[in-house]
Design brief:
- With 123 residues, the chain is mainly β.
- Helices cover 6% and strands 48% of the residues.
- It contains 1 helix and 11 strands.
- Strands 2, 4, 5, 6, 9, 10 and 11 form a 7-stranded mixed beta sheet that branches. Strands 1-3-8-7 form a 4-stranded antiparallel beta sheet, with no helix packed on it.
- Strand 7 (66-71) and strand 8 (76-81) form a beta hairpin.
- It starts with a strand and ends with a strand.
Length: 123
């Protein structure tokens, strides 16, 4: 597994969870990092991304409730989820790309995915 995600669980509405994701040593560098989620019967959707310099963007449905952050020394990305709602229930996947290294090496960027962590929010 190239990206190891953790932190999911079962919580009640309005509670909080913090997801973590760390890249394995086989991944030399990462640029943009982010979180996606997929609920049963629905397509995978973008939740939040953060660029190498630290610029964050969020899906409208989580703005003001979720915060993405990263620790480049640990090659890790985090998702602080507050005021959770039942509609946030999904499997959450972390993602990263190595655009800068790919450009240097003259190859397409690699997309890395975590194994997914289940978040369940009860009403």
């Amino acid at each position: 597994v190239q990206l190891q995600a953790s932190g999911g669980g079962l919580v009640r509405a309005r509670e909080s969870l913090r997801l973590s994701c760390t890249a394995s040593k086989t991944i030399i560098s990462v640029d943009v990092m982010g979180w996606y989620r997929q609920a049963p019967g629905r397509q995978r959707e973008l939740v939040a991304t953060i660029s190498g310099p630290g610029t964050a963007s969020y899906a409208d449905s989580v703005k003001g409730r979720f915060t993405i952050s990263r620790d480049d020394a640990k090659k890790s990305v985090y998702l602080q989820m507050n005021s959770l709602k039942p509609e946030d229930t999904a499997v959450y996947y972390c993602h990263s790309r190595d655009d800068t290294l790919a450009s240097i090496l003259g190859r397409p960027a690699f997309d890395y995915w975590g194994q997914g962590t289940q978040v369940t929010v009860s009403s």
